[in-house]
Amino acid sequence: MPGFEIFSDEEKKEVNDVLNSTVLMRYGFDGMRNGHWKAKELEKALAKRMQSNYAHVVSSGTAALTVALASAGVGAGDEVIMPTFTFVASFESILAIGAVPILVDVDDTLTLDPEAVEKAITPKTKVVMPVHMCGSMADLDKLKAICAKHSLLLLEDACQAIGGTYKGAPLGSIGDLGCFSFDYVKTITCGEGGAVITNNKTYYENAHMYADHGHDHIGMDRGAEAHPFLGYNFRISELNAAVGCAQLKKLDGILALQKRNFTILKNTLGQSDKVNFRRVPEGGVENYSFLNFYLPSHQLAKKAHKLFGENGVDACFYWFDNNWHYYRKWEHLIHKTALGKLPHEVIDQLPDYNKTDFSSSDQWVSRNISCLIKLGWSETEMQERANKMLAVISAL
Ligand SMILES: *Cc1c(COP(=O)(O)O)cnc(C)c1O
């Protein structure tokens, strides 16, 4: 990760197909397209790779989450359970449809803690949204059982975990709906883009219509299409989808490179008894985009992260202090600061995140360091980085 490291002639050819046709729009213009339908091609390939019946590609991962929620009928006042450790897109997508984000602790997997999920369920809960952060997953069997027991939807945010698996199934394909991001730094990239996958025909039909102003996509004349319900524009352009077509073909190669570099780093850091690795639920296989480990205390983790930087080891993250990924720094959510008025359901139901106790999340995230695994690092470079990191940790 990220996929832009391996851009080559394939991406250029796909983009040139589109530019030469002059059709940047994913629908219509049939006579001018020279047979190129990049968004549709990407959807077909993605559905196949993810062993899902349907895929719909949209303009971003955030859009994918919004479209997924809307397509399953989630709306104003519905509660969506999401983790304290994720990207701001999780609560943005929930708020965008007037629903209420209910933050819940993460455990040593760095994703939703099933026990905390069960405690957070109310009569208004509609969805459980695990976020497979940094390439690895929540305990999906446990979450599935909770969702079945309480008749809730399971929506997987697999934006950072494309290519990982759980009990043999691709991440994203296990819940009722799954979402991916193809933004500029993701494992595979379109520049900006995202996707929703599902086996549910109704959700899929809703998704493609909702993401295109409610157009029903029936018949050859866009101007004559009906609009069965209100929608928005979350369409991807053909240019972005074209890049995605080339990148998806490289996914398995990317995963193999990441695994090689991840394994070198893990084997080296594992020599220190100060290091414990993130728990991966039984039957889970990461996509190896990050290596996550815990140090014995908050202070040591913070110090090690600083020393890595000073010793030229970049691309390591200390999420506990990060503005985008951990609830402590989401002051706009905590203070309910919006440009206009928030829906009254959100105002009434949003917990006071100033007072909520997330000490269970803190005990994991404050001790965690997360190392990005780049594709461009040779085995020798990776081993050198790993040795430097081990030396820093050993001297703590
Ligand atoms: C990147 C990301 C998103 C949103 O994707 P964009 O394409 O940047 O909108 C959502 N969730 C997670 C966990 C992400 O990492």
UniProtKB/TrEMBL annotation:
GO terms for biological process: polysaccharide biosynthetic process. Keywords: Aminotransferase, Pyridoxal phosphate, Transferase. Pfam families: DegT_DnrJ_EryC1. One of its GO terms (molecular function) is pyridoxal phosphate binding. Belongs to the DegT/DnrJ/EryC1 family. This is L-glutamine--2-deoxy-scyllo-inosose aminotransferase KanB.
